[in-house]
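Re: folding output
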Amino acid sequence: MRFLSLLFLVLTTVFPPVVVRGGHPRHVTAHVNIYREPGRFAGWPANNGIWVWEDEIVVGFILGYHKEQPGHTIDGSRPASRMQARSHDGGETWEIEETVLVDPEEKARDAAGLPDPIDFTAPNFAARLMHERFWYSQDRCHTWEGPFTLPVFGRPGLLARTDYLVEGRHRLTAFIAAQKEKGDEGQPLCIRTTDGGRTWNLVGWIGQQPPDENYGYAIMPATVAINGGSYLSIIRRGGVFDGKKRWWLESFLSPDSGHSWYMLAQPAIDNGGNPATLTRLRDGRIAMAYGWRKAPFGIRSKISADEGQTWSTELILRADGGHWDLGYPRTVQRTDGQLVTVYYCNDHAQPERYLAATIWDPKQVSD
């Protein structure tokens, strides 16, 4: 198998992390700064994916330059890079890696031309989905093969982020979003390959297409399998209603492997606009984390012990953000049972956006 690293050098830099222990609620063990540098913007791990093998964790993020402006404070006039952070000790320390995902002279390839179907159950497998493309790795994200094209399923384009479930050697189900019929974002959908990535089929749309007249969008699913054939997915929603902007999270259940979807009453979280992440814990519970873009800005979470039917009281992982431009979390579980939630953050002291993690103990949470 030919990997792009044969053509490009992977640059690795070690940044001593800042670990803050103590003074937290009993369920929070520590906050760790993964990447922080004055004048830089490090963000959006939810877009890029997180993967874990025992206590080795890899998370993707975007690294650009900070610029004070309305909206996200990344300077669009300067170059930005897709980066990875890697931890070998369950999120306590991290190395920063710059990985080239595409040869500038090589266009995305048709996945039907894969020389062999991808073995999704290989022990070191990882996949990354972004927009209309996907990549895969068989060596714990050290090198990536791709990009390969995804079909757009009759829409102008896709808004895919990395959210998938491995369900067999050649079967993988992904939860993405597509542009609406008129080209705006977006509507979520469930897609699947059963031939190792060579072809992809639309399984079902998640909810109705949001109306165009109120700038409505439904994007960035976060999904877990429940009860062996059902899925629970949390969708990021937004739009203008009665003349006011509103952003929230809503949940959908599929009882038939993604073909049909039903909106649930809970959880419905008015968090000011931020995607959630869902993680199946080894004790059977489900952990959810999400950014909180209302003062006090920060990261919050809930836990469900009954397959998402009910949820614990809201847990504060941190509430010290200096601006709403934070969040986009992803969570994995360490071998000792603690959770590592990675997100981007900011504070009052410095203007940059930095990549951080909170290590927390779900055993300290009462349902």
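--- second protein (sequence, then structure) ---
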Amino acid sequence: MTDKEFRHMSRGNLVAIIYQYQQREQALQAQIASLTAELNDRRIKIGNAGSLAEAVLSLNHVMEAAQAAADQYLDEIRSVHTDAATREKEIMDSANRRAYEIIQQAQVEASTLRKQADAECSELREEAEADCLAMREKIELFLDDHEELRCLLDDL
């Protein structure tokens, strides 16, 4: 896993990975202790056997066990890496879905607000036109009642 990938992981994920590594390290330490004890036993056997051929065979078993432990450790590290990459992808997919939902919701709300504003503007325009027409009618009635004022206005 690259440094960049580690930097983008949450603390919880990092703590979980560290915890897994510590558990594996403890298991490997126990296995090393067991293998060391086995090695000591084999050394005693080799010393007692006195045969170089028997010593080589005993040492070969120890090396096979050590190789198996190393292979197991590498497999576990690969597994942790794969699990972390999978979890990272799941988190990113979830975040992208949530972002899309938020954008969709904002667009719906913006459309609703726009429709409400258009309706209010139309309503206000109609009210203003009605008020203007009513005012014009009142002015006409006033001018009809005061004919001399109409004449003065017509001269202008």
